[in-house]
Amino acid sequence: MFIYEDYNLQNKNSFGLNVSAKYFCTVSSKDELVNLVEQVKDEKVLLLGGGSNILFTKNFEGCVIQFNRKGITTLDEDKDSVLLEVFAGELWDDFVSYCVEKNYYGIENMSLIPGTVGAAPIQNIGAYGQELKDTFFAANGIYLEGLSEKTFFKSGCNFDYRSSIFKHELKNKFLITSVVFRLKKSHQLNTHYGSIEQELKSMKKNNPTLADIRNIVVKIRQEKLPDPRRFGNCGSFFKNPEIEKVHFEKLNQLYPSLKGFPFSENTIKIPAGWLIEQCGWKGKRIGNVGVHEDQALVLVNYGDASGAEILQLADSIKEDVFKKFEIQLEEEVNII
Ligand code: EPU
User: Fold this and answer.
1) CATH of the domain at 47
2) Cys-Cys with 180: which of 36, 58, 137, 297 at CB 3.0–4.6 Å?
3) Which of 43, 67, 91 is the last residue of a domain?
4) pTM of the model
């Protein structure tokens, strides 16, 4: 274990922002974490996963900690399902690929989501009709204060749309070291999401396999979302907002192309990408930053942008969306 000082984080955040941390350290065991916490006990701490959901607006004046242990272990299995423990440093998409190869069902629609397995429960990642919480069994980890270990089962995680206890009450307080998933062994696919259905139709696949779904999701994502190795980005910058039914009905009369998805008894979730596009932001570029041309929910660093420039762009978008639709967009990414 080595504690770096004044560490450049440009390769550690998918926006590619040129910022630094006062200290940076990767740990792979509880002993290493205990040792580190003793040495940096007066510093602020930031727990970093793959850096694919974070916007640094300034240097971090504290210690950034990354847990990097990888590995997948089968804890239990029967004829219907398998219980897998995955160390937090494993890349999420490597884990999806492993499950598809083994014919384990339940996370294939979340193919190619960047980031680590340890970060996945924090924002309850989701895509194309699947959410992490549907296959999540437990998260194991360590409190930074007191350094005691704890297992959080699903009911204790307060999972919600792109949210959990780890993103709020326990933010930067609890280091997730491994995640346990229960996956199905029987053929059970979720193909109802619009773009997956369309793709299956055009490929004339009536009985898709697990690998077909993974390939389709990879294709859709590669077509719509910019590769962070080319243009820095963090996927969806905002959450899809939840609005009152009456508000939705009013808007839908004015804009029949607006789609809504029932969320709770009185609320409807609507696509933030649509709202942003309607305000004329899709594909717009201002200096080093811009809104992606194929998916308006994604903000892009086209060059040497600073976090402040991205934040400024986000604020302008929020202002326009509010003026036009009286809807307050909320960031999905963590702003530091
Ligand atoms: N839309 C537009 N214009 C756009 C983008 C979207 O009108 O520029 C509308 C269209 O009506 C489209 C609908 O939004 O049919 C949904 O678009 P899409 O399928 O691309 O999904 P999204 O709601 O924009 C969410 C997640 C993504 C996830 C996709 C697919 C959030 C904040 N984002 O985006 O997650 O991949 O669904 O399930 O919920 C991420 O979290 O970083 C992420 C990429």
Assistant:
1) 3.30.43.10
2) 137
3) 67
4) 0.94
Q: What percent of the chain has pLDDT over 70?
A: 100
326 belongs to a structural domain: yes
- Contact criterion met (CB below 8 Å) for 17 and 305: yes
Write the CB contacts of 295 (distance below 8 Å, at least 6 apart in sequence): 224, 225, 273
Give the catalytic positions in this structure: 162, 236, 332
Measured in whole angstroms, the distance separating CA 44 from the mean position of its chain's CA atoms is: 23
Q: What are the pLDDT digits (tens) for 142-171?
A: 999 999 999 999 999 999 999 999 999 999
Closest atom of ligand 1 to CA, residue 221: 36
Same domain for 253 and 284, yes or no, is yes
Residue whose Cα lies nearest atom 22 of ligand 1: it is 271
Q: Do 94 and 147 lie in a common domain?
A: yes
Q: Which pLDDT does position 320 carry in this prediction?
A: 98
Report pLDDT digits (tens) over 38-94: 999 999 999 999 999 999 999 999 999 999 999 999 999 999 999 999 999 999 999
Is 22 a domain residue?
Answer: yes
Query: Ligand 1 within 6 A of 164 CB?
Result: no
Domain that holds residue 167: 72-184
Q: What is the pLDDT of residues 92-110, one digit of tens each?
A: 999 999 999 999 999 999 9
Please give the tally of structural domains in the chain.
Answer: 3
Residue 196 lies in a domain: no
CA 225 – CA 270 distance, rounded (Å): 19
Which atom of ligand 1 is found nearest the CA of 123?
41
In a domain, residue 200? The reply is no
Site to substitute for ligand 1 among 225, 274, 333, most atoms within 8 A of C-beta: 274
